[in-house]
Automatic annotation (TrEMBL):
<dbReference type="InterPro" id="IPR032630">
    <property type="entry name" value="P_typ_ATPase_c"/>
</dbReference>
<protein>
    <submittedName>
        <fullName>AT10A ATPase</fullName>
    </submittedName>
</protein>
<dbReference type="InterPro" id="IPR001757">
    <property type="entry name" value="P_typ_ATPase"/>
</dbReference>
<keyword id="KW-0472">Membrane</keyword>
<dbReference type="GO" id="GO:0046872">
    <property type="term" value="F:metal ion binding"/>
</dbReference>
<keyword id="KW-0812">Transmembrane</keyword>
<dbReference type="Pfam" id="PF16212">
    <property type="entry name" value="PhoLip_ATPase_C"/>
</dbReference>
<dbReference type="InterPro" id="IPR023214">
    <property type="entry name" value="HAD_sf"/>
</dbReference>
<keyword id="KW-1133">Transmembrane helix</keyword>
<dbReference type="GO" id="GO:0005524">
    <property type="term" value="F:ATP binding"/>
</dbReference>
<dbReference type="InterPro" id="IPR036412">
    <property type="entry name" value="HAD-like_sf"/>
</dbReference>
<dbReference type="InterPro" id="IPR023298">
    <property type="entry name" value="ATPase_P-typ_TM_dom_sf"/>
</dbReference>
<dbReference type="Pfam" id="PF08282">
    <property type="entry name" value="Hydrolase_3"/>
</dbReference>
<keyword id="KW-0460">Magnesium</keyword>
<keyword id="KW-0479">Metal-binding</keyword>
<dbReference type="GO" id="GO:0005886">
    <property type="term" value="C:plasma membrane"/>
</dbReference>
<feature type="transmembrane region" description="Helical">
    <location>
        <begin position="151"/>
        <end position="171"/>
    </location>
</feature>
Length: 191
C-alpha cells in the first residue's frame, strides 16, 4: 500500500515526477491520499484516467470531493453529515458507505448485463425492420411506396422500443444478489 499526504502529493504531481508517482502507484494494491486539497484529488484521478486509459471511480461524501467526482468517469456520492454537495455532483448516491459493495457488485453487474442485452436487441430489431423495407422494395418494383402506415410505424416502435426495456429492467437478473456478493469475480464475467 501507498500512503501519501498533501504536501508530498504536491511534489509527486509535478510534471517531471508524475510518471514516477504513477509507476509506484501501479505497483500498489491500494493508494491512500490523505490531507490533500480538492484540486489534488481531482488531479490524481485525472492522472490515472489519462495516463493509464483506465475507467475511474471516485467516491466522496462532502463538498471537498466534488471536483474529484466530476473528473472521474463514474462518481458516487455518500450522503451524510458533511452535506449533499457530493451527492448532487455524483452519478450515483448511497446513504452509507456500507452500501457501496451492493451498488458495485450487484447493481453494477445487473446494469452491465441489461445494457449489453438491450444493445443486441435494438440492433436486431432495427436490422429486421430494415430487412423488411429492403425486401418490400423488390415486391413493389422500387416505386417508393410506403410499406406501412405511419400509425403502424409509431405503434411498432412504441411496442418494440418501450415494453422490452421495462420488462428487462424489472425482471432480468441473471444471477441472484446473494451470489454476486458472495462471488465478486462474477462482475468480470459480463465484460
Amino acid at each position: 500500500g501507498l500512503v501519501i499526504d498533501g504536501r508530498t502529493l504536491a511534489y509527486a504531481l509535478e510534471p517531471t515526477l508524475e510518471d514516477k508517482f504513477l509507476a509506484l502507484a501501479k505497483r500498489c494494491r491500494s493508494v491512500l491520499c490523505c490531507r490533500s486539497t480538492p484540486l489534488q484529488k481531482s488531479m490524481v484521478v485525472k492522472l490515472v484516467r489519462d495516463k493509464l486509459k483506465a475507467m475511474t471511480l471516485a467516491i466522496g461524501d462532502g463538498a471537498n470531493d466534488v471536483s474529484m467526482i466530476q473528473v472521474a468517469d463514474v462518481g458516487v456520492g455518500i450522503s451524510g453529515q458533511e452535506g449533499m454537495q457530493a451527492v448532487m455532483a455524483s452519478d450515483f448516491a448511497v446513504p452509507r458507505f456500507r452500501y457501496l459493495e451492493k451498488l458495485l457488485l450487484v447493481h453494477g453487474h445487473w446494469c452491465y448485463s441489461r445494457l449489453a442485452n438491450m444493445v443486441l436487441y435494438f440492433f436486431y430489431k432495427n436490422a429486421m425492420f430494415v430487412a423488411l423495407l429492403f425486401w418490400y422494395q423488390f415486391y413493389c418494383g422500387f416505386s417508393g411506396s410506403s410499406m406501412v402506415d405511419q400509425w403502424y410505424l409509431i405503434f411498432f416502435n412504441l411496442l418494440f422500443s418501450s415494453l422490452p426495456q421495462l420488462i428487462t429492467g424489472v425482471l432480468d437478473k441473471d444471477v441472484p444478489a446473494e451470489v454476486l456478493i458472495a462471488v465478486p469475480q462474477l462482475y468480470k464475467s459480463g465484460q
